[in-house]
Design brief:
Layout: E1 7-10, E2 13-16, E3 20-21, E4 25-29, E5 31-32, E6 36-38, E7 45-47
Antiparallel strand pairs: 1-2, 3-4, 5-6, 6-7
Domain Small ribosomal subunit protein eS31: 3-45
Family: Belongs to the eukaryotic ribosomal protein eS31 family.
Subunit structure: Part of the 30S ribosomal subunit.
C-alpha cells in the first residue's frame, strides 16, 4: 500500500486517514487489522472493541 492512500486532500486541507503511533510519534502510522491497530516499528497494539 502506498503512503498516498493514508492522506486525503479536501480543498486546501490535508486529512490523515490513519492514526499515528503514540510511542513513535507523528510519521509512523498504525496498521489496521480486523480486530486491532498495531505499529510495525515498536510493536504497540490497540485492540478494537
Amino acid at each position: 500500500m502506498t503512503v498516498s492512500k493514508f492522506y486525503e486532500i479536501k480543498g486546501e486541507k490535508l486529512i490523515r486517514k490513519r492514526k499515528f503511533c503514540p510511542r513513535c510519534g507523528e510519521g509512523v502510522f498504525l496498521a489496521e487489522h480486523k480486530d486491532r491497530l498495531s505499529c510495525g516499528k515498536c510493536g504497540y497494539t490497540e485492540f478494537k472493541k
